[in-house]
Amino acid sequence: MRTDRVKARLSAYLEGDVSSREAARIEAALEASSELREEFRLLQATVGLLRGLPRPEAPLGLAERVVERVRAGEAEPVRWRDWLHRLFEPAFAVPLAATAAALLVFVGTPTGGLLEDESAPGAPLAASALPVPVVTVARETAGPEASGVRNSSRVDLRMPQRQRLQMVRMLRGAGHPHSAALASQMEPDGEVVLASFAKGRRGR
Amino acid sequence: MTAQMVDVSHATVAVGSARAMPAREIDDPDAELVERWQSGDEAAFEALVRGHERRVFGLLMRMLGNRDDALDVAQETFLSLHRHGHRFRREARFSTFVYRVAANAALNRRRSLGRKRAREQALARRQAVGFDRPQSPRDPEAAAVGVEVQERVQQALLELPDDLRMTLVLYDLEGQSYSEIAEALQIPEGTVKSRIHRARNALREHLRSFVGVDRGGELS
Predict the structure, then answer these.
(1) Is residue B160 one of the residues assigned to a domain?
(2) pTM score over 0.90
(3) Rounded to an integer, what distance in angstroms lies between the CA atom of residue B201 and that of residue A159?
(4) Taking residues A174-188, what's their average pLDDT?
(5) Which residues pair with residue B6 across a beta bridge?
(6) Complex-level ipTM beyond the 0.95 threshold
């Protein structure tokens, strides 16, 4: 048996986790090598030190504090209704609404990214061919040359009436001034632009 | 397999005496308290907490290396136990269930602490005594050496990866059997053994420069 292999198996040997055949080989190797014997002694010393570590005392009052917290209801199981209720608290609802809006924009983009393909046809995409919410891409072929931008494009997110009402309800339920303001912007009939992105290619 | 005893000065280590696996019939000293608690007796829960607080705190101290974190996670462990106590089916010892919850809590805390803070804590530990002194020191000089040795061993423990350290602590410090550790950590027994041996080898390397061994096998 090679020395490094024996070294790696010494702990298993110490615990009796080796077969009698392997044990005999290890013992023969130990007999033949002073280096291995020293490794074995070092391992025994290490395990001895480890097992000699005292178990720390628990701080006074730990059990009392646990019982106190149990009585205060901190160990009650969290029910799904509680989580649902939490979703409508401002601290959760506002970021959730913002994240949802951002996700809708990205998921709704047919190419999977915004304006990556600027050579795509410039006509607005058909709503029936898109997942909701409706995303339209408008191209301005005659870009404002004065600013050095041409071939600029714009992506608008438009939501169908049913989804818009759902989001309005969610935003109003959040009870936060910002979400309420966003909800009021979404209420009127007609198309609502939730997000608009524009990107242009600099003229050379 | 024949067992032989090897005296290594600080502790007695049995060669070839792997702890016996528990019988299939669970002989659980906590069975009565658990039954009372699961029937709604909160006093029984308090008794269980008192009965296990030291081993839970000890495990967490060895895993986290910080008294405040250990105390915090110990409380969370018992709250979690209370919260999920109905899931304990008495197919294993209650202490194994406790270790399982504590181990998960410790590993979660380690992950949230992040490596940076762990390194900072390791540095701070070198400068502070965080562990108990031996109960009956032989003499002041020996006691001082004992504390230094304990700190070095604890420091070396904290250098190990979390999964190796947890397994090693449960085996060598908490005295759990392979099967109990496998149950607590939800890993196969073979993995338990492998982790213990790898952890010991790594620990041996960490302590190599610190623990001198003379030809007689005594620590120097």
Answers:
(1) yes
(2) no
(3) 62
(4) 68
(5) B13
(6) no
Q: Is residue B83 part of a domain?
A: yes
Return d(Cα A128, Cα A117) in angstroms, integer: 21
Which range has the worst mean pLDDT, A18-32, A58-72, A146-160?
A146-160
- DSSP assigned state of B87: G
Q: Do B173 and A53 touch (CB under 8 A)?
A: yes
In this structure, the number of other CB atoms found within 10 A of the CB of residue B3 comes to: 10
Q: Which two tokens stand for residue A92?
A: 């959760």
Establish if B212 belongs to a structural domain. Answer: no
Q: Which of B54, B200, B208 to mutate to test the interface with A (most CBs of A within 10 A)?
A: B200
Sort out which chain A residues have CB atoms less than 8 A from B53's CB and list them.
58, 62-63
Residue B219 lies in a domain: no
Place of tokens 């607080």: B53
Lookup result for tokens 């030190």: A49
CA distance A191 to A156: 10
Q: HSE of B139 in the Cβ direction (CA atoms, 13 Å)? A: 1
Peptide bond connecting A77 to the previous residue in cis, omega within 30 degrees of 0: no
Whole-angstrom distance, CA of residue B213 vs CA of residue A42: 6
Which residue segment(s) compose the domain that B182 sits in? 29-126+141-207
